[in-house]
Amino acid sequence: MIDLDVLIGINILPMIILAIILASCIMEQRNSPHRSYYFVAMLACEIVYLLFNTFQYDTERDIVASGSLALKGRYIAMRGLSDVFLFALMIAFTLYATKSVLAKAKVGKWVWISIVAYCSLLIVGCLISIFVPSLADRFYYVDVEGAHFRSLFFLAYLPAYYLSAVLLVTFIKHREALTRNSFIALTSFLACPILVSVTRFFDDEIYIVAPATVVSFILMYCFMYLQRSDRLKEQELLLANNRLAVLQNQIRPHFLYNTLNSIYALCGKDPKAAQRAIGDFSEYMRANLESLEEDDLIPLDRELEHVDHYLNLEKMRFAGDLEVEYDTDYVDMMIPPMTIQIIAENAVKHGIEKKTSGFGKIVIRSRRTAGSDLVIVQDNGVGFDVKQYVDDPGSHVGLINARERLKQLLGATLIIESEPGNGTTVTVIIPRNNDKKKETKKEEKKEEKGDAE
């Protein structure tokens, strides 16, 4: 029979390792938008499971030392609670796999509902067995010599085997929705503990399920880290491409030609208006070029100045048939450069320009709500079918770029509401939890300015 002190050590060491991984995950989540609360829940369940396992073996050691079963109730409670968190771990893993990793695969609800329901039923059964002696004796047995086993042993592993079978089939079926790292991590988490547990049927003295589970957690964490690194590289490349796309989208040849021709015509008719238009055009071009070098967020009022220069040029081109209204008393927010500009240009290009009668109007609003900051751009243009925009995003590349940059830099959401003949409303929703990040960037800007001086 294996020494109980060794069993306690086998559980304590994995607990320490998993606690370090848990702390690392919590710290990473503060700075990463790619959060996995289910993986954190898995770690927590496994740590508590190992903790009760440790108490169970410690109680068993006391029983052997005293030669009495006076502590049998505590032993049953510890063993029962360890099983409770084992089944809770299965639930957390199921939700992690189907909700986080396989979210885009549209896995049928029956997959996770059946497993969660089954494991929940077993959790209730474990809790009941702790307090009902006749049931406890059938599930958990210990004697003064340290021998322990489960009379209905197979029930402890049945949900694990069921879980493995269903999820493995699910992973294989939706293989295209998983990255290579995700597939290996998920299957290893199922394979390592299950293969080891099978050996218990042949040799009841094998106690390496806990270490095998820890190995699976380490593999999952390593593959998650690699996947996160790949995702960050992809985002950096996407941001670089977006900056170039923004410039290409904004400095459109026909817009430049139309603007220069309008200024040329004004030079003879209204030199002062031409002078103002040249000023707007100069500021517009400067802001476009600076946006390529701008990696940080900028204040909303600075972005609105750029939008105003652009819309002034469009009002000149439309010769009085374009009205712009600002309702932006609240501007205490940071935003990626050129995002509102892109939305305003989209309103002109796809909405106002296509009107066959009547004047065009663009309204820009900013609001502060309980949990977020809002910027709203509304036009009375021809509108479009939002479903067609989703199916064919190439027709609105600017909005796609703006949406991606807002999501990546601020975790913000861009909502489009439109229908043919009734104009378009684009709403940018910036979560308030970015306030700390905004303040940090403001402080960094001040420091850079102070160093330059």
List keywords for this structure.
15 helices, single chain, two-stranded antiparallel sheet, Rhopdopsin 7-helix transmembrane proteins, Heat Shock Protein 90, alpha+beta
Based on secondary structure, the structural category is: alpha+beta
Second rung of CATH, namely the architecture of the largest domain: Up-down Bundle
- Low-pLDDT parts are none
Shape: elongated
- Helices and strands, in order, run as HHHHHEEHHHHHEHEEHEEHHEEH
Q: Specify the biggest β-sheet.
A: 5 strands, mixed
Query: Approximately how much beta-strand content do the residues carry?
Result: 5-15%
Describe the structure.
- The chain has 453 residues and is of the alpha+beta class.
- The protein folds into two domains: 4-234, Rhopdopsin 7-helix transmembrane proteins, CATH 1.20.1070; 251-452, Heat Shock Protein 90 (2-Layer Sandwich), CATH 3.30.565.10.
- It contains 15 helices and nine strands.
- The chain has helices at 4-31, 37-66, 72-101, 109-131, 133-139, 154-173, 180-198, 209-250, 253-269, 271-291, 300-318, 339-352, 386-391, 397-410, 435-452, and strands at residues 141-142, 148-149, 298-299, 322-327, 334-335, 360-368, 372-379, 413-418, 424-431.
- Strand 8 (413-418) and strand 9 form a beta hairpin.
- Helix 3 packs parallel to helix 6 (154-173), helix 9 runs antiparallel to helix 10 (271-291) and helix 12 (339-352) runs antiparallel to helix 14.
- It is elongated.
- The mean pLDDT is 78.
